[in-house]
């Protein structure tokens, strides 16, 4: 907060009575005004954000399941630890190849937080791009999203919906202190990451269905965009669920609903 200068007092010009009036008429010069008061520097005050109470608290559970003999690593040295934990969860080393194995937790937190917005920065993507090229039908505007495009997301969606719900949430709670740290360092010192996760899940569950196949045009940068401006103005999260196709979208919503129940059970 910028320093605030508070000027104490107001300079008042007082007419001198009696002899003062004679002085004025004799000398024809007004008296020199008194010097202005010296501004007093107020001490700088720092407003430290006070964490609000979480809507969906999980901190106590995370603390209860923490193993003092195997403490969590430092957030910025946690990639190997997280990779090993995911390998246990997925039970398939090949699936780890889907990940961008650098700053895994920070990427995950940033990605989740950005989904309700218009754009997810590339630096926050936790997964590598889907294989192959985005497929469309037609040769002139409007183009249409090709049904064949949805198969590009089969492996990611099958992996996600195939996760054991209880084991997934258990790992999430185990890593939660690091996730919360990453969330605060993202710029939310007084908020709680689990609340944001639930909020984003609700946002994704509210994704409307599209008239399939959706009409596309090519913008002046050579990118495919929705012909309908209202669709193009949608959030990144809604666009992602549209891009993967209606079948995948239904599976993801079902999975998110199940995870939401577990993440909010201790409200």
Which features would summarize this protein structure in a list?
two-stranded antiparallel ribbon; 2 domains; 42% helix; disordered N terminus; 267 residues; 10 helices; single chain; four-stranded antiparallel beta sheet; mainly alpha; DUF3014 domain-containing protein
Question: Sheet bearing the most strands, described?
Answer: 4 strands, antiparallel
Overall outline = globular
Please tell me the total number of domains. 2
Output mean pLDDT. 83
Kindly state the percentage of residues in helix.
40-55%
Number of helices: 10
Which stretches are poorly predicted, pLDDT < 50 over at least 5 residues? 1-34, 36-40
Task: Give the class from helix and strand content and strand pairing.
Answer: mainly alpha
| Terminal-residue CA separation | 35 Å
Q: Note the beta-strand portion.
A: 5-15%
Number of strands: 6
> Going across the major beta sheet, what is the strand order?
3-4-5-6
The helix/strand order is EHEHHHEEHHHEEHHH
Rg calc:
30 Å
């Amino acid at each position: 907060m910028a320093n605030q200068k508070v000027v104490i007092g107001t300079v008042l010009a007082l007419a001198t009575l009696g002899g003062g009036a004679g002085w004025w008429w004799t000398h024809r010069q007004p008296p020199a005004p008194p010097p202005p008061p010296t501004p007093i520097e107020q001490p700088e005050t720092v407003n430290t954000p006070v964490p609000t109470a979480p809507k969906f608290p999980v901190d106590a559970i995370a603390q209860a399941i923490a193993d003092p003999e195997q403490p969590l690593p430092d957030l910025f040295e946690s990639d190997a630890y997280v990779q090993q934990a995911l390998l246990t969860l997925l039970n398939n080393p090949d699936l780890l190849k889907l990940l961008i194995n650098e700053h895994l937790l920070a990427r995950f937190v940033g990605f989740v937080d950005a989904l309700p917005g218009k754009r997810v920065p590339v630096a926050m993507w936790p997964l590598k791009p889907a294989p192959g090229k985005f497929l469309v039908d037609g040769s002139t505007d409007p183009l249409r999203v090709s049904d064949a495009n949805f198969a590009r997301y089969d492996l990611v969606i099958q992996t996600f919906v195939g996760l054991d719900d209880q084991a997934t949430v258990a790992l999430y709670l185990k890593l939660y202190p690091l996730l919360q740290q990453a969330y605060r360092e993202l710029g939310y010192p007084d908020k709680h990451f689990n609340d944001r996760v639930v909020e984003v899940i609700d946002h994704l569950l509210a994704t409307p269905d599209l008239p399939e196949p959706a009409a596309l045009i090519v913008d002046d940068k050579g990118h495919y965009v929705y012909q309908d401006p209202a669709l193009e103005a949608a959030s990144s999260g809604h666009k992602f669920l549209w891009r993967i196709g209606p079948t995948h979208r239904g599976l993801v919503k079902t999975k998110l609903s199940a995870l939401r129940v577990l993440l909010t059970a201790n409200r």
